[in-house]
Amino acid sequence: MIRARGLTKTFHRKSETVEAVKGIDVDVREGELVAFLGPNGAGKSTTLRMLTSLLEPTAGTAEVAGYDVTRHPAHVRSQIGFIGQGNGGGFSYRVLDELHNQGRFYGLGSAEYSRRAAELLEALDLGGLEKRTVQSLSGGQRRRLDVALGLMNHPPLLFLDEPTTGLDPHARANLWEHIGAMRERYGMTIVLTTHYLDEADDMAERVVVIDHGEIIADATPSELKRDHSDDLVTLVVAPGSAGGAPSGTDLLPDDEATLRTALASGDGEVRTDGAVAADGARTVRISTAHGDTRLPEAIEALRVAGFAVRSAELRQASLDDVFLNLTGRSLREEAA
Ligand SMILES: Nc1ncnc2c1ncn2[C@@H]1O[C@H](COP(=O)(O)OP(=O)(O)OP(=O)(O)O)[C@@H](O)[C@H]1O
């Protein structure tokens, strides 16, 4: 569906030169849902605008739905839906008129655009709002109308630029449900941008991480987490008395060598806190790619060695850990 090579955009404004997108290569297969993830100003929208033929690349090439974006922009536009960051609908127009106008704009006949509008109103839960003006809709309803407008021409490829920004968590979840349903119903390829980490993690099959105009990672969310960050297992270990402790000995967890020996057979990096509580307990942290299996293994190994595990916690890697590891910055903090 998409094949971009060396795609570049440099803006020149007065004395300022902004290298917004610096020669990216990206492929999207038919049917994929790909999220472009990155902080503000990373170059996500500029990339989308080049792929949708709205902005001419400074260098590089992109083929979208089989057409070159520079040589055949009209063909590209006939094959795509694009939902930008602003609301697409005219504020004082009625919902149904907006949809019909969009259909006319794409050259559909009146029977076809009326049928398509009715189908999309139903599919996107906008039934009953046909006669309302766009400005009277809620934020979530407006965004769903945007999606309907983007789908009027039956595009095989849909671009969404930050579809859920500004929506409350309920409206975000609702929009995602509808996007998922649209995808199932029409089998579209979807490319979207977001700076919501949880959205990219939960919804996207592939995440393309963009920073300073460059792609710094491109993989499934679980591959990214496996390759670029670790799970963290935290255990509070107390002096043991049960399990395999030799009788009469009271093993002390501040005996770091013993602790480390007990945990040596499993994977990951083991670190112990310097601090020892009044009752002799101390905290052990294990960074590992497989926290879900390492946690029970570590508890068992410590029990067998004679320690008592007072509490255990598993924090699984997030896409923010991935971004932090790749860039040294937290995307969550930048977005905030
Ligand atoms: N028309 C323009 N003229 C000059 N600079 C621009 C223009 N459009 C974008 N830029 C700059 O290009 C860089 C990338 O912007 P872009 O909008 O692509 O980022 P983004 O990742 O989509 O950010 P956001 O999440 O805030 O939308 C930014 O530094 C931006 O200021």
CATH fourth-tier homologous superfamily of the largest domain = P-loop containing nucleotide triphosphate hydrolases
| Low-pLDDT ranges | 242-249
Number of helices: 12
Largest sheet: 6 strands, mixed
Name of the top-level CATH class of the largest domain? Alpha Beta
Average pLDDT, to the nearest integer? 88
Q: How do the strands of the widest beta sheet line up side by side?
A: 6-7-8-3-9-10
What's the number of extended β-strand segments? 14
Bound molecules: adenosine-5'-triphosphate
For the record, the count of structural domains works out to 2
Description:
This is ATP-binding cassette domain-containing protein. Keywords: Antibiotic resistance, ATP-binding, Nucleotide-binding, Transport. Residues 2-237 form the ABC transporter domain. Its main location: membrane. InterPro entries: AAA+_ATPase, ABC_transporter-like_ATP-bd, ABC_transporter-like_CS, ABC_transporter_ATP-binding, P-loop_NTPase. This protein is an alpha/beta fold and 336 residues long. It folds into 2 domains: 2-227, 3-Layer(aba) Sandwich (Rossmann fold); 230-315, BMC (bacterial microcompartment) domain (Alpha-Beta Plaits), CATH 3.30.70.1710. 37% of the residues lie in helices and 29% in strands. It has 12 helices and 14 strands. The strands form 3 sheets. The chain has a 6-stranded mixed β-sheet, with helices on both faces. Strands 2-1-4-5 form a 4-stranded antiparallel β-sheet, covered by helices on one side. A hairpin with a 2-residue loop joins β9 (206-211) and β10 (214-219). α5 (139-151) runs parallel beside α6 (169-186) and α9 (256-263) crosses α10 (291-305). The chain is elongated, with a radius of gyration of 26 Å. Adenosine-5'-triphosphate (ATP) is lined by residues 11, 13, 18, 20, 38, 40-46, 195.
